[in-house]
Design brief:
This protein is an alpha+beta fold and 506 residues long. The chain has helices at residues 48-62, 98-105, 110-129, 181-184, 191-207, 217-226, 238-247, 259-269, 279-282, 297-300, 322-331, 334-338, 352-361, 411-414, 419-428, 480-483, 486-505, and strands spanning 4-5, 9-17, 21-28, 33-40, 72-77, 86-91, 96-97, 132-133, 142-144, 150-152, 159-160, 365-371, 381-385, 397-403, 406-409, 432-439, 447-450, 454-457, 461-468. The chain has 4 domains: 1-94 and 284-306, Phosphorylase Kinase, domain 1 (2-Layer Sandwich); 95-283, Transferase(Phosphotransferase), domain 1 (Orthogonal Bundle), CATH 1.10.510.10; 307-404, Trypsin Inhibitor V, Chain A, CATH 3.30.10; 407-468, Trypsin Inhibitor V, Chain A.
């Protein structure tokens, strides 16, 4: 039975840890819902400053109401145990951190980075409207839901104008990779400090590296003060570069005035509607870790170790007597229990979650990489390595190529091509093509513009603007050309028409 706090919250595995304590996935046994419980470290349980920090975090985060900020449900200071348990009960965000995504995927496309910026800035604005500065914005504190939405977590060192100071004078508060120059100088953080941190996060997302990281924390902090942002790859759109450069200006007054301004600019540049995630992120598999009742809290908060599930035994396993089973385990009788070495199953065509289950049932592990494949449902496995039937070893990894549900369109590769050729390229990729004729001298029949580009949902409609020649204007009446030949004919017609009118009149 799991450890229960306050006779209500049953702790499960650890999903995160930091300087103040560990965060557990847990069950609220009263309301029957999954929650996250942040427990103050046992060595700080009786520390007034430690409790004050956690109390402040709970109160500040609870005052923000926004889907992009994790909700706080409860705060408890429990003196009934020797450890003096202090904990916050929060919304459990089903997903993974931006930090994990960067480790697995590396650099992100510009439209995806702008999606991160827009979403996080929107959540930050809600915090700033409540008078709260996060002060520790970094990829590890940005959670990603399976729907590709961001949720801001960990207000452990956040501060409001009314907060009591909980750090020593002159101490550095924040993570040096993302801390603002004014914080390095020991000045109070402002909303512009969060904007700076988000700009550094955006650069990290775009390039796969933190721009000011150096060999030591002190060197990194000094780089925040004095070093310029490293240059961007020329392929990065100018508007994206300009926004990140503005957000990371050394002087706060030179940055965008508000997080809302940042969100608007990111949206205008062309932020994706959601963040593309690997299939392994879209279907998170929580670790299975049991914590027995009576275990001291310090032990219960140690990091859980997750191992792959064992393969299901062969059918004969159910009929094996207890004595034979024990003997087999003692003698390492794998052939008797599991039928030999694990064999890679055929999972192509399955959804990623079902494929992962099949692979784990064989005693193997899986990792997914997202690929763009036209005409394939999102999340479906299109390829695997090793191939089906390959013998492996316990815990060996099977790589799954999983359809993203999106296909990339490059406007540059289409502009200048004849319409028929460009349309054929798009249709081969599963897109619906529409044509919009644009009057233009020269380039007749060629594509001159594309209404959207980047990674688009499979089967989207793409409109190609095609140049058509201007229509020749009619010659003005009375000109020499009009009066010759056709002009006489005109007169005859007019005369004939008048004669008819006179006849009718008489």
């Amino acid at each position: 039975m799991a450890v229960r706090l306050n006779q209500r919250y049953a702790l499960d595995e650890i999903v995160g840890s930091g300087g103040m304590g560990a965060v557990h996935r847990a069950t609220d046994t009263v309301l029957g819902r999954t929650v996250a419980v942040k427990v103050l470290r046992s060595d700080q349980g009786g520390d007034d400053v430690g409790r004050a920090r956690m109390r402040s975090e709970a109160h500040l985060a609870a005052s923000i109401h926004h889907p992009g900020v994790a909700q706080v449900f409860d705060y408890v200071e429990d003196d009934s145990t020797p450890e003096g348990s202090t904990f916050i009960v929060m919304q459990y965000v089903e997903g993974h951190s931006l930090s994990q995504l960067l480790k697995e995927r590396g650099p992100m496309p510009p439209e995806q980075v702008m999606s991160v910026v827009e979403q996080v800035a929107d959540g930050l604005q809600a915090a700033h409207d409540a008078g709260i500065v996060h002060r520790d914005l970094k990829p590890a504190n940005i959670m990603l839901t399976p729907a590709g939405r961001t949720v801001l977590v960990d207000f452990g060192i956040a501060q409001a104008a009314t907060s009591e100071p909980l750090t020593d004078t002159g101490s550095l508060v924040g993570t040096t990779d993302y801390i603002s120059p004014e914080q390095v100088r020991g000045r109070s953080a402002t909303p512009q400090s969060d904007v700076y941190a988000l700009g550094v996060v955006a650069y990290h997302c775009l390039t796969g590296r933190s721009p000011f990281r150096r060999d030591t924390h002190i060197a990194t902090a000094m780089a925040q003060l004095h070093d310029e942002l490293p240059p961007f790859d020329p392929s990065v759109p100018v508007e994206v570069q300009e926004l990140i450069i503005a957000m990371t200006a050394k002087k706060p007054q030179e940055r965008p005035a508000t997080a809302a301004d940042v969100a608007r600019r990111a949206a205008a540049i062309g932020a994706a509607s959601s963040i593309d995630l690997p299939a392994t992120f879209a279907v998170p598999m929580p670790a299975r870790a049991a914590v027995e009742t009576g275990v001291p809290l310090a032990t219960a908060t140690e990091k859980a170790v997750v191992t792959p599930r064992r393969r299901r035994p062969v059918v004969a396993y159910a009929a094996v007597g207890t004595a034979v089973l024990v003997a087999a385990l003692l003698l390492g009788g794998r052939e008797l229990l599991f039928g030999g070495a694990p064999v890679v199953p055929d999972v192509v065509g399955l959804q990623a979650s079902a494929a992962a289950d099949r692979i784990e049932d064989e005693g193997l592990t899986s990792r997914a990489e997202v690929v763009d494949v036209a005409g394939t449902p999102k999340g479906e496995v299109v390829e695997q390595s090793p191939s089906p039937g390959t013998e492996g070893t316990d815990g060996a990894s099977v790589t799954l190529s999983v359809a993203s549900g999106k296909v990339r369109v490059s406007a540059k590769s289409l502009i200048g091509k004849p319409f028929s050729e460009a349309a054929a390229v798009l249709e081969d990729r599963g897109f619906v093509v529409e044509r919009d004729d644009v009057t233009r001298a020269g380039d007749t029949g060629d594509v001159v513009a594309v209404d959207k580009s980047g990674r688009l949902p499979d089967g989207s409609t793409v409109t190609l603007s095609v140049a058509v020649a201007p229509v020749a204007a009619p010659a003005p009446a009375g000109s020499g050309e009009a009066s010759s030949g056709s002009g006489n004919s005109g007169k005859g017609n007019n005369g004939k028409a008048k004669g008819k009118n006179k006849g009718k009149g008489n």
